[in-house]
Write a structure and sequence with these properties.
The chain is globular. 29% of the residues lie in helices and 26% in strands. α1 packs across α2 and α2 packs parallel to α3. The two termini are 29 Å apart. By secondary structure, it is of the alpha/beta class. Bound molecules: arabinose-5-phosphate. Arabinose-5-phosphate binds next to α2, β3 and α4.
Length: 228
Amino acid sequence: VSAEAQKRRAALEAVKHVQSNMTLGLGTGSTARYATEAVGEKLVSGEVEGVRAVATSKATAALAEHLGIPLTELGGAGVDLAIDGIDEVTDDLEAIKGLGGALAREKIVEARARTLILIGDSSKRVRRLGERAPVPVEVLPFGWEAAVSDLEALSCRAAPRCDESGAFKTSDNGNYLIDCRFDAAFDAYEVAAAISVIPGVLEHGLFLGLAKLAYIATDEGVVELTRS
Ligand code: A5P
C-alpha cells in the first residue's frame, strides 16, 4: 500500500468522529488534506450538517473554502475536534509537527481542541521523538540569530529552513522556521519548556500531552493508538 493510500485510510478513520454541528480544527499538510476533503464530502452528501471549521493555515483555509466547508474564527470556546497529520508520533502520542511550517496556528487551535486526533502513514511512528525529524521552532525575524544560539545551547543543531534558492522560508505569520536536530534522545518536556522561554520564539513543534488518539495506517490496516 502506498504512503498516499495509507494517509487517506488514516484520515478516513479519524473523520468517522465528525458529527453534525461540531466546530472542527482542520490541520495542514498532505495527510490532513485527505481529512479535510472527507469532511467536505460528508457535508455535500448530507451525512453531517452544521459543521464549521477553523483552518490551521492559509492553504487549508483555501482548500476548505473550495470544498464549501464554512470557516470560522477560533473563539474562546475552542474546537470540538481537531484532526491533523504529524511528522513523528510515539506510542505515547507525543508528537513533532511543523515540517509544513504551520506549527504555530496548529498549536493554537489544537491545544484548544476537546479531542485531537493525529493521523499518519507508518513512516511517522517512532520510538523516540527526534529520531528522524527535527523539532521546528518559529521565531520572529528580529534577532533570530540570538534565538538560534540559545537553541543550540540545548544540545541540538539549529538552522533556519531555506528554500531551493537559499532564501529563508517564512510561516503564514511571516516568521522564520528554525529546524533543531537532536542527535541523541532528549527529554521532550524539558526541551519544550526551555524553548518556550527563549526570547523571540513564537512556538515550537513539540505537541506533548495534547492528542487523545492517533490513527496510523500500515499495510495490514489502521492501528489506533490511545493515551494510556
Ligand atoms: C504542518 O505544519 C505540519 O505540522 C504537518 O501536519 C506535518 O508536517 C505532516 O505533514 P504531512 O502530512 O504532509 O507529512
